[in-house]
Amino acid sequence: MKEFLGMEDIQRVSELVMERISSRPTVGMILGSGLGSLADQVQDAVFVDYADLPNWPESTIEGHSGRLVIGVLEGQSVMIMQGRAHYYEGYHISQIGLPVKVMQVMGIETLLVTNAAGGVNPGFNPGDLMLINDHINLIGMGGLSPLRGPNIDVLGPRFPDMMNAYDSDLRKIALEVADELKISLQQGVYASLAGPNFETPADLRFLHCIGADAVGMSTAPEVIVARHGGIKVLGMSGISNKANLDGNTPTTHEEVLEAGQVIAPKLINIVKGILKRIDD
Q: Is 151 an annotated catalytic residue?
């Protein structure tokens, strides 16, 4: 593929998707490892395999279905990514940002992102949900920005502001919904690493020192592209495992998927409650 994807590439993909649906979605969602079951509740669903979309990064990891689900959920017109691709799967970082750029061109105004993450905060336990207040983009600090290369001015500014990356109004709604449903919702900072290896104990101690509450291998690049395009973002992490600071307990992808089975019902209820209020 080309190193940098231009407006023609983005338009081509958006047109291919639009050919299959009757109305433009306004809410986008990206569902992380083991959390894709929310998409099964979409009504009047249209399915588009990632493999059918040029330059679209395909998911290769268990727990990521690899398709778009477009339809209606709680009265909202939604476009859901049932599974995401990661930088460690071998894609160029600009390709990781393509789906969100396509969402923007299609008219998405709000993006909900979820992920499975390791709990760095010692107060977090597997099965917890964390509302993302902010992120630490360690991938980007190493030079891997999805905005690197020629800026597409019609999509957004060369130097986008990230002061309210995770929209404060949407976070308020999420907290209200969780409180009404009596679902515990932690809050914290998500650290984004490149992966695919899990963190060493020293990595985790460093992340804790710099203010991270959870760590994963996604999300920040997608959020950066969304904010570049003026899309409001809400992010939630499902805490799949607890930080192993002493190095005595290995972390596996299997336990991430198992934790997703506990997390998914809570996440689904909160997201559905948010969708009911998103236009209030």
A: no
Q: Name the DSSP letter for residue 172.
A: H
Average pLDDT of span 20-46: 88
Judge whether 53 and 85 are in contact, CB under 8 Å.
Answer: no
Question: Whole-angstrom Cα distance, residue 120 to residue 28?
Answer: 28
Catalytic residue among 241, 243, 259, 264: 241
Task: Name the token pair of 64.
Answer: 């990521």
Contact between residue 236 and residue 267 where contact means Cβ atoms under 8 Å apart: yes
Give the separation between CA 225 and CA 155, rounded to whole angstroms: 9
Q: Is 33 marked active-site?
A: yes
Q: How far apart are CA 274 and CA 111, in angstroms?
A: 12
Out of 3.40.50.1580, 3.40.50.261, 1.25.40.10, 2.60.120.20, select the CATH number for domain 7-277. Answer: 3.40.50.1580
Annotated active-site residue in 14, 85, 89, 190:
89
CB atoms inside a 10 Å sphere around CB 62: 12
Q: What is the pLDDT of residues 101-114, one digit of tens each?
A: 999 999 999 999 99
- β 27-31/43-49 pair status: unpaired
3-state secondary structure of 66: coil
The question of whether 241 is a catalytic residue gets the answer yes
pLDDT, tens digit, 9 for 90 and up, residues 175-202: 999 999 999 999 999 999 999 998 999 9
Bond prior to 196 in cis (omega within 30° of 0):
yes
